[in-house]
Amino acid sequence: MAQMWRCSGLRWAAGGPELVWSGGRASALTWGKRVAFGVVEGGVRTCAGARGHACPGRAGVPGRSTGARCEECARLDRAHSVAADAVPDDPRPYHVYLAWFGPGMVKVGITAVERGPARLLEQGAVCFSWLGAGPLMAARRAEELLRAALRVPDRIPYAEKRAVRAVLPGTEAERAAEIEELHGRAVTLGGWPDSLAREPFRAVDHVRAFGLKGAPRAVGEVSELVAGGVVSGELVAAAGPDLHLATGGRGVVVLDTRLMTGWGLVPVGGGGAGGEMSVPVRELKGGGGGGLQDGLF
User: Fold this and answer.
1) Which residues, including other chains, have CB under 8 Å from residue 4's CB and lie 6 or more apart?
2) pTM beyond 0.70
């Protein structure tokens, strides 16, 4: 019987995206690499636990959940989250940033200075710029100020991010234009916290890091994994938690790697260069695909 693995998710390392497995092993992902795995026959998806600890009840979770946690573990995870304002006394300095995901899609957020651009890569930000840096609560106040004054949200759904990746402007200057204008307005707002140092506009573009330049248009997205299902394709791009996989005659299908956690996964052989999918795939909003249905191929 093939060895079974459990995925802990996708991370962005200095050399690019990596799939991380329980136990700490990581698989580097490069453009053109074949990504292929099967879901254990008869398997069920179980809670991924919280804060590095296994779920005590090994609770089952829905296949379409991107959180892959039961209610109790989700509550425990959020209880130690900066995003949920659960650790206001965090002594680390924080960056405030503006991130752009596509035309008309800008968000404001904060991330620990020590993490650098990792948070932006994890979110699939096409480009971004820092706004300022300082204590956590000052960064949080600035974030709230920008949301209210500039009407910039702090969250954008992944479905919307995927829908615009195929129609991004062609140059870095065009992609940075919206956040440049907002940055100029943001740093002149009244009420800016005194302890938050303003930072000059400097756009960082991730199109090359994500492999999106010249990548074929995605037409579908995996809606969930199922017991006995197979995912196989050639990696052509990646953004945030998403892998863009070329699957031969079916075109490029996006796999949100958060759907992999909680399942027992096994290697698969063969399948040819084009790859195969025997999991539910739906048409990608704005992808222009035809004939993809929310069911097994």
Assistant:
1) 40, 264, 265, 266
2) yes
